[in-house]
Amino acid sequence: MLTVTNLTGGYGDIRVLWDVELTVHPGKLTAVLGRNGAGKTSLLDAVSGLLPAVSSGALRLDGDDITRASTPARVRHGLGYVQQNKQIFKRRTVEENLLIGGYVLPGRGLRGPARRAALEQAYDRFPMLAERRQQPAGGLSGGQQQMLGIAQALMPGPKLLMLDEPSAGLAPSIVAEVFGLIAQLRDDGLSILLVEQVVDDALEIADDVVVLESGHVAAAGPAERFSDNDIVREIYLGNDVFETDDAAQREVR
Q1: DSSP string of 152-193?
Q2: Mean pLDDT lowest for which of 72-76, 139-143, 233-237?
Q3: Tens digit of pLDDT for each residue in 185-207?
Q4: Helix (H, G, I), strand (E, B) or coil at 213
Q5: Is 15 helix (H, G, I), strand (E, B) or coil?
Q6: Which residues contact 112 (CB under 8 A, 6 or more apart)?
Q7: Helix (H), strand (E) at residue 57
Q8: Can the keyword Cell wall biogenesis/degradation be found in this entry's annotation (predicted)?
Q9: What predicted TM-score, i.e. pTM, was given to this entire model?
Q10: Which pLDDT band, with edges at 50, 70 and 90, does 233 fall under?
Q11: What is the distance between the alpha carbons of residues 60 and 238, in angstroms, rounded to a whole number?
C-alpha cells in the first residue's frame, strides 16, 4: 500500500531523515518506534508532503507515484493523517469537524448521500461522537478528541491511515480503547502506519516494525521479532545496539 524508498529530507539545511526505506502492506499495520528526536514525526510529515525539504527518494501509494504530489493530492490518492496532539477545530461542533474532513475532495467531495453515509459510518464506529454531534469539540475529553481526530481523517475513506502518537496525554484505560479501535480498523482492511511511544501496546497490534535512530532505519522486521525485552530496552535506552551508517541498515531476523 505504501512504499518509501531511499527517503532523505529535513528542514532547510538540517537533514533529519537519511535513506529511509519502509513498506506498509495492504491491510497491515506497520509501527515506527524510536526515541524522541529519532525522526518519527518527520517521516510521517515527509509521507504527507508537510516536510519542507525532501531532497531524494521515492514514495508510492497504492501503486501511484506521489513523490512530488502536493499534500491535498496525496489525500485524494487515499492518504489520511492524524497528527499528534489532536489537531481538531475546537470551536466547531463534532459534526462540523467531521464534515471538514470531507472537504479534501474538491470536485467530487462528500455531498448528499455520500456525505450522509460517511457521517453514519463515523457515528457507527464512534457512538460517543453521535451523542455529542452538536457539542463544540473543545469540550470533549482528551480521549474523545483523539477519537474525533481519527474519525475526521476517515471521512474521505483513506486507503492508508497514518497516526502520530495517538496515546499521547491519555489515561491508560483510554489508551487501551484507542488501540482497540486502531486494531479493529486494521482488521477491517485499512492499512496503517503508526508512530508510537507506548511500545508494548504498539507491538501487540503491529504486523511489522521499523526502528528509527537519528533519522536512519536501524532495524526492521515482523513485529514478533521485537518481542524480546532487551531489543525494546535498547531502542529507548541506547547502548548503541543499533549502530548504523549511511550505507547500511540492520534487519532483525
Answers
A1: HHHTT--SEEEEE-TTTT--HHHHHHHHHHHHHHHHTT-EEE
A2: 233-237
A3: 999 999 999 999 888 889 999 99
A4: strand
A5: strand
A6: none
A7: strand 53-61
A8: no
A9: 0.85
A10: low
A11: 32
Contact by Cβ (8 Å): 235, 199: yes
Give 53-96 pLDDT, tens digit per residue.
788 889 999 999 999 898 888 988 999 999 987 678 999 999 99
Burial of 64 (0-12, 13-18, 19+ CB in 10 A): middle
Sequence letter at residue 169: G
Amino acid at 49: G
Burial class (CB in 10 A: 0-12, 13-18, 19+), 213: buried
Q: Residue 64 forms beta bridges with which residues?
A: 61
To 5 degrees, how large is the angle CA 3–CA 82–CA 48? Answer: 40
Q: Can you list the domains of the chain with their CATH numbers?
A: 2-86+159-237 (3.40.50.300)
